[in-house]
Design brief:
This protein is mainly alpha-helical and 110 residues long. It has helices at 26-58, 64-98.
Length: 110
């Protein structure tokens, strides 16, 4: 015979008594917040530099030295984005190994 809903006691395993996630500590939340902030800043920095490099590329006026400078800026911006994505992936991998979700913002929205 299956117990009815009224017969079962329900304990929410996700939240702790103070309404924070049971797995979130102050240090994990702080590190996660910093990592998220740096990821957003890095993405915005990439967008800024790719726009500047594109503008420089368009306005080279056929001069090889200006074209090479613009090409170098585009390459550096793309390398920076690859480094940013790699750092994000490495952080997520370390978090998975340590069973910590650094990129979870739910403690701030409960």
């Amino acid at each position: 015979m299956m117990p009815t809903f009224a017969d079962t006691s329900f304990t929410n395993p996700i939240t702790a008594p103070n309404n924070l996630p049971a797995t979130a500590t102050g240090a994990e939340t702080f590190v996660g917040l910093i990592l998220q902030f740096l990821t957003i800043v890095g993405g915005l920095w990439f967008i800024f530099w790719i726009i500047i490099a594109g503008f420089n590329w368009i306005t080279t006026e056929g001069k090889p030295d200006k074209l090479e400078k613009a090409r170098t800026q585009v390459i550096h911006a793309i390398v920076g984005l690859v480094v940013l994505i790699s750092a994000y992936a490495l952080t997520a991998l370390i978090g998975a190994i340590l069973n910590v979700d650094f990129f979870d913002l739910s403690p701030f929205f409960i």
